[in-house]
Structures are given as C-alpha cells and as structure tokens.
Write the structure tokens for this entry.
Amino acid sequence: MAIPRGKARETILQSAEGLVKERGASAVTVEAVAKAAGSAKGLVHYHFKTKLGLLGAVMERIAQSRTREWLAALEPGSPQSAAERSWNLLTGESVNGVTLAWHTLLQSGDVFVDQSVKNIVNKFSRALGDAFVRLLKEDMHLAPTVPNEEVGWLMTAVIDGIGMQLLAGASEQELQGAYAAAWLGVLSLTVPRGS
C-alpha cells in the first residue's frame, strides 16, 4: 500500500520512531523503516538524506513529546500528585519504549547527532528544572537555593538513571523509594520563600 501524498515524511518518521522504541537506535536500518512505512528506501533518503538525519528527527520528535509529558506531570497542584504522576510517567517510559529509544539515541556516537543530543538534553533539563521550581514556588512556597538549571540536571540524571535501572529489570519498588529520595533531595535545596 502506497503512502498517501503529503503524508510520506510523517509516516516514515512515525515508523522510525516505533522501530527505535522497539529495537533501539542501533538496530534500526533505513530498509526496515521503509518496509514498516510501506515506502521505498529512496523515499526515506529523499526526506531525511541519511540514517543519521532520520535518527536526529526521531530524537527531536521523542524529546518534544517527552518534554510535554513531563511538564504536564509536574503541573502545579499537589506536590504528592505531581510525584505520583511523574513516577507513573517514568515507569511508563520504560514499558512503552521511550527509555530504550532515548538511551540508544543518546549513545549513537556521531558528531552531528551528538551535538543535536546535547541541545535536546539541555532543553529537556532546562524545562524540567523550570517545572520543578515552579512546583516548589507555587505549591510549596519554597525557593531553591541553587539555579533552576541545577535542579533540572539533578532530576534529569535521576530520571534517566532510574529509567535505565527499570530497563535492566531492577525492582520497581526499590526504585520508587530512590525516586522519592530524589524529591527529598530537591526539597533539601530550598528555603521558605521570603527567607
């Protein structure tokens, strides 16, 4: 079945994302993406030039979706519900392939992709830090004693590390305790607002 005109790029990108989530970036080939998308290999090259171009587009797509989901999970409301929503998101990412895709894309080793990865990870960390600080300020009336960026880097490291442990089969219950401890660590970096 041919891809409808005007939808080829999106169909190819969706197929590539699905394969990266299922197999990891290094196991995905242009041929496999073309087959999954129901397109010719040449059409993949037409839209993305190279496999690296395709993987860069997949990384950007996953990063945008991941950032939106994490910002929604950390919306102000109840800190406890934000912790629960974000824990559910973290465990869900290990099941739906986002963690596998994210980590295998981060490890691609290509200079062009590495620069894209650095930019994407920086954006994700900044957004995460801003979301955590907003939650602290609005719901808990606390002010961080470190820059937002540091809070973002800390929580990005925690999320990515726990995600890897979940992929490796570590106990979800133990990791949930570690995640809660990370939240307490962030709280220890605050003072009451106005102090």
Summary: The two ends are 65 Å apart (CA to CA).
